[in-house]
Design goal:
The chain is mainly alpha-helical. Helix content is 73%, strand content 0%. Among the domains are: 173 residues, no CATH class; 179 residues, no CATH class.
């Protein structure tokens, strides 16, 4: 069942009606039934992997919490992490490893055919694995007690809205909302439906149209020039943001109907003034997960502390203090790159972002000196605009590794933006041959402007939901209906696809 189908909407509303009819003490049961039923409809075999994650994590958490001997507790933790991350790594990267091992052997004139294995990729395995492992680590650190009811724990792991594409929730914030039962509030239903409508509008009006243009260009790079590639990158940026954030809007809205407030995953990322800030605004829950469970433990490990001491002796106090952080950031983004997919282009993408952030940290003192010498007011609005544009360009260069089929094509596309640059394509009508007609282009441009205006308002601290909620009932619902009915006629129906992270 697709998140953008009428069936999903009916499924959520029907479940919500039953949820609020039932006594509060058993409302979590209907959430569990809803989640497992949806997953079973979509992938009955995938339930085996969910069950494995639930059972291993549940048992490990109970044993770790009861055990006072740190050595034994650590063994349980390591065993649980290896089992669950091991399955994730095997399913996602087995064939990648086979292919590259075959290529490596060919260098030594050893012919080993790359025989790929047919593997089942359960829906949302990356998201529910990360979420569950954070729970196991937190229990190991004794931040809270483990959940003793295995069925309630299953609900935490498999809660429908967040299971397939995040956000990656934390047990201490999410579990009480799931287990305690929430009172019916019309505001929650209203806000939930509003959020779903906004997410679907971003998906159907903006993302799907943008994808047509971007796909037309990046699937035929030999035909198009540098200007086409820039247009393709811009539309791909729209697609990436609107598809992913639109999907998050839908799932957060679906949870909100039940009175459950999930963590936000986006905060106007294209207004970032640096790559580091961009990643603090984009896929926020993944970033905080990496920070809490990889970055900090790695940074304060014995080996990194020793490395920091040596770095300060060799490079001085300032660089020596920053260098371990740079190494940790590169590691983080290598993992992020690998997490995105089993291809070299994603690994390069990860290193690209990690190296830029590392260099920014190392060169920060010199930036301040250069700015002072050039008499640049770093607090001015103009300079902030320059930083935003610079970051947007750097982000889009990184998107090339996602948009193109291979790393080689990504570098080829980047080079073409320099040596095959011709402005005439903007007026020769070639852009109208990208799968969209003039009406689609007008709709896309107007929708981008509306999205930009609403994003600026959010960036200025204006809460649009509260702004609309303060209006009279008639006006408020008129706005909602306009949003819904605008999505139907203006949604692009040519190549509507599922949200990109729905089976990540």
């Amino acid at each position: 069942m697709s998140f953008i189908s009428v069936g999903f909407f009916i499924f959520i509303i029907g479940t919500a009606i039953i949820y609020y009819i039932l006594p509060k003490r058993i409302r979590w049961c209907i959430l569990l039934l809803m989640s497992l039923s949806f997953y079973a409809i979509s992938s009955i075999k995938g339930l085996m992997f969910v069950a494995f994650t639930v059972i291993t994590s549940y048992i490990a958490a109970l044993f770790m919490y009861k055990c006072d001997e740190k050595r034994i507790r650590k063994r349980w933790l390591i065993a649980c992490l290896i089992c669950n991350f091991g399955i994730l790594v095997f399913l996602k990267y087995c064939n990648f490893a086979i292919t590259n091992f075959s290529l490596l052997m060919s260098v030594f004139n050893i012919d080993i055919p790359a025989k790929h294995v047919s593997l089942l990729m359960p829906m949302g395995i990356s998201f529910y694995t990360f979420q569950t492992m954070s729970y196991v680590i937190d229990v190991y650190e004794k931040k809270y007690e483990p959940e003793k009811n295995i069925f309630k724990f299953t609900l935490f792991v498999s809660f429908l809205p967040q299971m397939l594409q995040g956000p990656i929730g934390r047990f201490d914030r999410l579990a009480p909302q799931l287990f305690n039962g929430n009172d019916f509030e019309l505001k929650n239903v209203e806000y939930g439906l509003q959020r779903i409508a906004w997410g679907l509008a971003k998906k159907l009006i903006l993302a799907d149209r943008s994808y047509v243009i971007a796909n037309s260009i990046f699937s035929n790079l030999n035909v198009f020039s540098g200007v086409h590639i820039i247009v393709g990158l811009f539309t791909f940026s729209i697609y990436e943001y609107c598809d992913f954030s639109g999907g998050i809007d839908v799932v957060i809205g679906a949870a909100e109907i039940f009175g459950i407030k999930m963590d936000e995953n986006f905060r106007q990322p294209y207004f970032s003034k640096s790559i580091g800030e961009f990643w603090r605004r984009w896929h926020i829950t993944l970033g905080t997960w990496m920070k809490d469970y990889v970055f900090y433990p790695f940074s304060i490990s014995k080996h990194m502390l020793k490395f920091g001491k040596k770095a300060r002796k060799v490079f001085g106090r300032k660089i020596g203090r920053v260098l371990p952080i740079c190494v940790a950031n590169i590691l983080i983004f290598f993992i992020v790159g690998v997490w995105h997919g089993a291809e070299w282009k994603y690994i390069i993408y990860g290193f690209y972002n990690g190296i830029i952030i590392a260099l920014s940290n190392l060169l920060k003192p010199y930036y301040e000196i250069w700015a002072a010498k050039c008499h640049i007011n770093t607090q001015s609005k103009g300079w902030k605009v320059v930083q935003i544009i610079r970051t947007f360009i750097l982000v889009n260069i990184g998107w090339l590794f996602d948009a193109c089929a291979t790393a080689e094509l990504s570098f080829k596309a980047l080079s073409r933006t320099f040596y095959e640059f011709n402005f005439r394509v903007l007026s020769d009508g070639s852009l109208l041959k990208m799968g969209l007609n003039m009406r689609d282009w007008y709709v896309l441009i107007v929708a981008v402007i509306i999205l930009f205006i609403t994003s600026v308002m959010k960036e200025k601290g204006i809460n649009l939901r509260d702004f609309v909620a303060e209006k009279p009932l008639v006006v408020r619902w008129l706005i909602y209906l306009c949003l819904v009915f605008a999505t139907a006629p203006f949604g692009y129906v040519g190549t509507t696809t599922e949200f990109m992270y729905a089976q990540f």
